[in-house]
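no rush on this but wanted to send it before i forget. theres a chain ive been looking at and ive put its sequence and its fold in token form underneath. i want to understand how the tokens follow from the sequence so walk me through it. thanks a lot i owe you, the record is right below:
>
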Amino acid sequence: MLLAQINRSPDLKQLVDEGFEIEVKGGHLIVHHIPYVNSKREIKYGTLITALSLNNNVTLKPDTHVMGFMGEHPCNKDGSIISAIHHSSPNQQVADGFVMNHTFSNKPPNGYENYYHKVTQYEKIISAPAKSLDKSVTAQTFKVTECNEDESVFHYIDSNSSRANINHLNSKFKGQRIGIVGVGGTGTYILDLVAKTAVDEILLFDADEFLQHNSFRAPGAASIDTLNKRMKKVDYFAEIYSQMRRGIKAYPEHVTEKNIELLNGLSYVFVCVDSNSARSMIISNLKKFGVTFIDVGLGVNVVDENLIGQLRVTVGTPEKYDHIPKRIGSASMEDDEYATNIQIADLNAMNAFMAVVKWKKLCGFYQDLNQEHNSTFTINTGQLIHEDNTA
């Protein structure tokens, strides 16, 4: 089944969105898991088969009202055949692995508007007896629809975007190569969000191991067995998100002057490090490369038995770097020891959300009226400030 064909054909897309198991094979639309009753009054599952009328791989109005079926002849709940739709029983092979055992005829006055109309009409007639015997049976299984490498970076269809009719907006991410430097806290949530977009590649950089404390400030839940493996953070997260998509590359190393060229040519880089000297070196080189970066910062302290602090997101683009010195600490500033930093999962997540929303604004996915290049959120006041605007 071609993903592009489904996305370009509203009727096929609607079938997928509503949970029908479809595929396109040998010029035929195949719809699996159609419940019906056989002559023994048993509930079985068959397959609807209909030839597709296409123009440039986009469906046209069906040129015939006849529907094929693989399975026994559907019956009423008393075991008698549904004679109102009976047409013929050709037992004809129409595609590899698919035999049209029966054909049915049910013609609306003006024919079928599209393949969604045709499939759902026949499904209602055929499945009604089965549903009267067992209300739990359904043709809408929402079975995962897989994609091959040529169709998508995802292993299965992004049905969320499809159902929301925003696939055309997701195309704004195609072709992008994203770097995430540091996947200890905020960087992991950035990965979680970026991984669900259609970017071509996501490069992860971090030399540290995924240990027990990391599991309390990262998405998901790691098992004891996983923690005892002491995997590199990048390998741990690459393994998880590669179950959903292709293009994740793990670099179990810190970004230094020796390997900084790995960031050259990337579309965007998220800088999620705590060392001011490392941040300064990375940003200095990204400016030379002309690569847009999004730097995140989280500062939390204990005051009167409460936590206070700020979250920061700072953007640097080839068009605007002049605000960077006053927003991001210089290499000469003392580095905080990462192990003593207060990291809270919800704050890491919020910092990541701010960063990813800004990235999506830069891509044109979200509207950006102010074009801010620095944003801060203050915990105890709830104040969100956008500064260094270009609009």
User: Anything to note?
Assistant: DSSP finds eleven helices and 18 strands in the chain. Residues 37 and 43 are 5 Å apart (CA to CA). The two ends are 45 Å apart (CA to CA). Confidence is low (pLDDT under 50) at residues 336-340.
